[in-house]
Amino acid sequence: MLFSEISGRTVMSAAEATTLGVVDGLVLAPDRARVAALRLRKTGGSANLLPWSGIRAVGEDAVMATDRDALRRPDGELKPLAEASEDLVGKRLLTEAGTDVGQLVDIDFAADSGAVLTLRTADDQYPGTALVSIGSYAAVLRVP
Question: Which of 40, 85, 93, 142 has the fewest CB atoms found within 10 Å of its own CB?
Fold first, then answer.
């Protein structure tokens, strides 16, 4: 599933059948090449992250969270990941040698596991496992 397909999608609580928010971003864990959480907007509170463990299903029309208690504030181990992943789409992609390979335009991830499959630029794509780190200016890739 592409981030561009899930962005703006409603997030519902399966337990309460209520709206929790709208998908606004992805929080990536580069060391695991996984989506650590979804960043939400319009949550009605300060808890705006839905950790992957709190997702029951990613459907065509909505993301189903286990319940409202699954929402988290950006603290603990999620805080540095959330800060680094802020405005992720649009960041530069650099190789470990410092070569600019383009701007990140989309992220393809497995809807069932959160595994990052590919990072896409306008002209190319790179495997999610190539992601080394994410900083305020760019994400760094290990490419052969």
Answer: 142
